[in-house]
Backbone:
C-alpha cells in the first residue's frame, strides 16, 4: 500500500520525504493509508516503542558513520512486495566520522 498510485499519486514509487511537509512543517497522513501498524482500535501496542527504537538507532548510526554505496555506479532497484525489498544486494560502506 505504501507505493499504490491511487493512494499516493503518480510519484508513489519515488522517495520524496517532502510530500509530508507543508511550508516546512510535518503533516502526518491518515494511519489508515499505511497499515504496517494498523490504525483505530486495533492499533499495534508496540508502535510507539518501535518508532522510538528506530529513531534512536538511526541517530546513533548517523552520528558515528557516513554511508555510501560500495560501488557508486550501480543503480538501486526495488521489488514491489508487501514491504519494501531491494532487488538484489545493496552493498554499503560505513565510514567512521571520527576517521574523516
Residues:
Amino acid at each position: 500500500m505504501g507505493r499504490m498510485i491511487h493512494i499516493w499519486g503518480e510519484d508513489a514509487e519515488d522517495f520524496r520525504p517532502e510530500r509530508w511537509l507543508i511550508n516546512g512543517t510535518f503533516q502526518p497522513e491518515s494511519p489508515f493509508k499505511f497499515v504496517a501498524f494498523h490504525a483505530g482500535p486495533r492499533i499495534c501496542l508496540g508502535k510507539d516503542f518501535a518508532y522510538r527504537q528506530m529513531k534512536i538507532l538511526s541517530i546513533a548510526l548517523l552520528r558515528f558513520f557516513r554511508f555510501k554505496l560500495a560501488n557508486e555506479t550501480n543503480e538501486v532497484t526495488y521489488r514491489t512486495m508487501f514491504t519494501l525489498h531491494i532487488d538484489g544486494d545493496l552493498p554499503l560502506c560505513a565510514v567512521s566520522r571520527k576517521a574523516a
Remarks:
- The chain is about 20% helix and 20% strand.
- The longest helix spans residues 47-64.
